[in-house]
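ok so heres the complex, two chains, lmk if somethin looks off
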Amino acid sequence: MQEPQPGPPGAARPGGGPLDLFILGVRRVSEACGVIAVLLLVASVLVVCQLVFVRYVLGASAIWQHEFVTYGLIAATFIGSPFVLLTRGHVNVDLLPHYLPGPARFGLAFLAGLLGLTFCALLTWQGFLFFHEAWATGETGATVWAPPLWIPRLAMPLGMGLMCLQYVADMVALATGRSAPFGPAEGPT
Amino acid sequence: MSELELGGLIAVVTTLLLLTGVPVAFALGLVAVGFLVAFDGWGTLNFTADVFFDALNSFTLLSIPMFILMGGVVASSRAGADLYEALERWLYRVPGGLLISNIGACGIFAALSGSSPATCAAIGKLGVPEMRRRGYPASVATGSIAAGGTLGILIPPSVTMIVYGIATETSIGRLFIAGLIPGLMLMGLFIVWGMFAARRHGYQFVDKDVSYSLRQKLEVLPKVGPFFLIIAGILYVLYGGVATPSEAAGVGALFCMILVAVIYRVWQPRQMFAVFRDAMREAVMILMIIAAAELFSYMMSTLFITQTLAMSIAEMEANRWFIMGLINLFLLVAGFFLPPVAIILMTAPTLLPIIESLDFDAIWFAVVLTINMEIGLITPPVGLNLYVINGIAPDVRLPTILWGALPFVICMVLAIVLLCLFPGLALWLPEVLMGPAI
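and the predicted structre for the whole thing:
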């Protein structure tokens, strides 16, 4: 339905300097994350319906479906997050940004970016340790299916790491005047 | 520092952090980690990833993206227009029939689509011009649609209720059923006010220029009927305990996809991708807040704030209704700035022990809380509905829409008062259908 929207004035365009390339590259990665999260969601719908069919129509017991969709959703949450950040989908209180004058708004946008980046970096680091623990010990889920736990846990450092990247790209765009503070959603909304 | 002072400090820091415009999820996470480290040492950092991950490790959470998806699918079709058309054709002879059709269509479509602004857009596009053409005052035409759109978070299936159920560990089926009668009651209050206001402006409820044949009345039914069946089916399996919310929502989403493909020819991969992408965006936003809110309430209970707060409020021996009033006032103010799910996730884990220590029912409180949250949807600065209506009817000035919506806000407050006087409005149906709460 929607044609790809051109970026806001001054936004990164292909063929620009290294900064433009960086911003654009990160953007493409985040968009790819969005596609992966969508695919995980599609898979979840199909598996849940298959689960209902197996349980209620065939009367058999479900073995792997619950865990599969639960882990799928966890992965979709972490991996989809950079795309949601890119498209300004993470809900916030925009009272001050709305009423502050230009320079103060710029400062606030930078501060908000730093705070978000701090938390994402922290989760990336802790998420990696959490993933590594499961990887090193070969821990598996506590069910019959027993999938290795490092697979779903990997989504946390991966997704949050890419979040950091998107935050950095956003702040670079902000600092160099390529995007407005608390600017409108970039790209498809 | 006592636990209560610490609680106050946390409230101040959280508010300040939220005001910077940082996403709610990350503000909550930062506050949680910051206070844990400051008061329990660096060792607590090791729990961060664990708690965050575990909060998401639940099959029930899948019902959130599934219901959002179901709503998105319905909203992407012309189902809203047909629903409006169907109600209008059947009710046009009733005094105020057009108003009833509009508010009714809003309520049903909002319940189906789960999105308040999408409802205002879908129903308002037809309803607002038609009401004005037939002489309803602009304030009633716009205000009723703005208010009608908010009904969706109360009338089941409702993502807001699911989020409350998850945050407080209450039965989602019970919450859904509990919202039904208050939802209809609120709809009734809206209609009564709308008719009263229109009459006051000299409007006579006789539409001589409109008439529909029986054939016209019947031909709209096959288009809207199946969607009702899906809602009824979901409620049936949930209250009967036949299937879990995630299963019901997943199958509901698939059925809705099939329906819009067959009835409205919405099936092209590109359209479906957009629907899935938007559902994913919203679900990820909510799930991130769920995980961060879990971290937040972990911090609150590790530092004994939740427990102390509930205990000291119980010991205050203040009137329980006075405290209920204060809680509602606090939620109302929060609702001016934040969407319902964010508020529920942030506050419910802390509020629930207080509510229960004061002998209020958790299910009843969910309904009161939800109506309270509806108010925030039609009050500035975040009241998206107002801006959507403004976009549909650009010649009606925003203050007129605001004034038009205000009496409906009073209807909502009245509904809360009625619920306080007669808790049975929310609790009777779940008890009859599902037995007394355990």
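quick notes: The CA atoms of residues 15 and 34 of chain A lie 24 Å apart. thats all i got rn
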